[in-house]
Design brief:
Layout lengths: L10 E2 L4 H9 L22 E2 L6
Antiparallel strand pairs: 1-2
Length: 55
């Protein structure tokens, strides 16, 4: 996709607009770790780099 890595990485998290705005205003994380048995990377909060459709 790039010949070199950009200095800014866009990470997308699948949530609605209201939650996204609360996350930006919060002084601490209000996102909750996913604990699903099908989470292939284990429990955590997931972001997709440069792909808002996958998020």
């Amino acid at each position: 996709m790039y010949s070199c890595f950009p200095q800014i990485i866009l990470g997308f998290h699948g949530c609605d607009k209201d939650l996204g705005e609360e996350v930006l205003k919060a002084e601490k994380s209000i996102l909750k770790n996913s604990q699903n048995t099908y989470d292939w990377l284990g429990s955590g909060i997931y972001f997709w780099e440069n792909n808002h459709l996958r998020a």
